[in-house]
Amino acid sequence: MKKISLGMLLIAVGGVLISGCLFQGDGANLDTQLRAIITEQNLSGDPSLGRELPNIEEPLPQLGMLLFYSKALSGTQDSACVTCHHPALGGGDGIPLSIGVGAPSPDLLGLGRTHPDGPQVPRNAPTTFNSALWDQFMFHDGRVESMGKTSGMNGNDGYGIRTPDRPWGYPDILAGDNLVVAQARFPVTSEEEMRGFDFGTGHGNMLEERNRLTRDTLEQIVGGYGAEKDTLTTNHWLEEFQKAFNSAADAETLITFDNIVLAIGEYERSQVFVNTPWKDYVGGNQDAINESAKRGALLFFTSSAAGGADCATCHSGDFFTNEKFHTLAIPQIGPGKESGTYGDDDWGRILETRKDKDKYAFRTPTLLNVEVTGPYGHDGAYATLESIVRHHLNPQAAIANYPFDQVDPSIRTINAKEYTNQALEQLLKNRQAGGNLTVKDINLSDEQVQDIVNFLQTLTDPCVKDRACLSPWIPDENDPNPDGMRLNAINQNGEGL
């Protein structure tokens, strides 16, 4: 006689309960069903387990924080890493498309930040929260990629990391030790984000060479040596680097671009926020989430064939992402990324792989802390969790009802509808080809949609909504300001973030 494990029995019982009560019932039934899913999917509620992670109080992340907030790393000295990734704004900037250099009010972040020509950055700023938990890709199009993709290693598995400085499929020997450090090499080279359009004129024609010379210039500016020796009026960076690296070496030895991004990367990697109500629930606290959220969790983790919303097919595991690329046809509202006839479309992953199936495909984001990381989509097309959930359930209907005419004209490309419909065509084409590259149409009631939204809100670590709790990641007047160029962020009301 074939033996049946306890896990299999729970799953079977859960399946009966799910199909029999349509995700309803009292708390005990909901808990029984969810415990079956948690057991089957081997969920711990904590994706940080087993990883080596820095602490914000350590010297290297402390140095990284100072660099992260300094406008000295901007070619125009009017933006910083934190411009697009402030902890008080969910590790992003709270607006659909980022505005880097050229803002009239450089220290104003989030709503109210403007640019004379509208947003120049083509995509929404991904959150830096829990960036240490990615193992395969960084950026919406995955242009920083772990070659080994080893679970739990953040790219530090010995197989190398590919970056935009190298052709697709080839590792970059200068990428650094992990995915976060590798991605930190690129905002400073982006004209729209931090470099500016006039910085280092003549810095090579090839992108890789221009990037190298830009980084060389920045390390000399921060280090106060070479051709940029006197660029900064105030420069006390050497003592901060000596402290962080526990070294008495000189500036040319210590203040290299590799060390700059290493410190920034460790600051970002210290932003681990995973202590969520869902984690408490998985750990055994039945009262950590309410019944609506429990119904939403059942819908989230259950396949469409069994009457669920099929969310966990892509948003899988404790990190709530499979780190794959999917065509969702999120409305294309922004300036685009040098795609299409006029260069104002954004074809996503295909720009890296050149594979037709990857056209309009973007990386599956983590859903941890998703409550505070909007707007949603690769270009921030959706302002609310409900709207992005509804798009996933029926992209065609969502696009038909999308208020293109209400998008800020300074953001919206004139070809927004056309490109969005092209993305929808690609989604439908992928569906016909089979596989799991796209979402399926799923019919849910308004109550069920709200249940899913309520579940998503249980994935928020309370710390990310508490300014006092976030204070270790935000420098204040007691922290060193080595160049006097710290970006002291304010909101549109002039209040400090």
Please describe the structure with a list of short key phrases separated by commas or semicolons.
mainly alpha, Cytochrome Bc1 Complex, Chain D, domain 2, three-stranded antiparallel sheet, two-stranded antiparallel ribbon, 17 helices, 5 strands, 33% helix
How would you explain this protein's 3D organization?
The chain has 497 residues and is an all-alpha fold. The chain has two domains: 59-271 and 469-473, Cytochrome c-like domain (Cytochrome Bc1 Complex, Chain D, domain 2); 276-457, Cytochrome Bc1 Complex, Chain D, domain 2, CATH 1.10.760.10. The protein is 33% helix and 3% strand. α1 crosses α2, α3 runs antiparallel to α7 (237-245) and α3 (59-68) packs across α9 (257-269). The chain is globular and about 65 Å long.
Number of strands: 5
**Structure classification:** mainly alpha
Beginning-to-end CA distance, first to last residue: 65 Å
CATH architecture of the largest domain: Orthogonal Bundle
As an assembly, this protein is: single chain
**Rg calc:** 23 Å
Q: Biggest sheet, open or closed, and with what strands and sense?
A: 3 strands, antiparallel
Weakly predicted, low-confidence segments: 1-22
Write the layout of secondary structure elements.
Layout: H1 6-21, H2 27-40, H3 59-68, E1 137-138, E2 144-146, E3 161-162, H4 179-183, H5 191-195, H6 207-223, H7 237-245, H8 251-254, H9 257-269, H10 277-282, H11 291-301, E4 325-327, H12 350-353, E5 361-363, H13 385-393, H14 395-400, H15 416-433, H16 446-457, H17 467-470
Helix pairs in contact: 1-2, 2-11, 3-7, 3-9, 11-16, 13-16
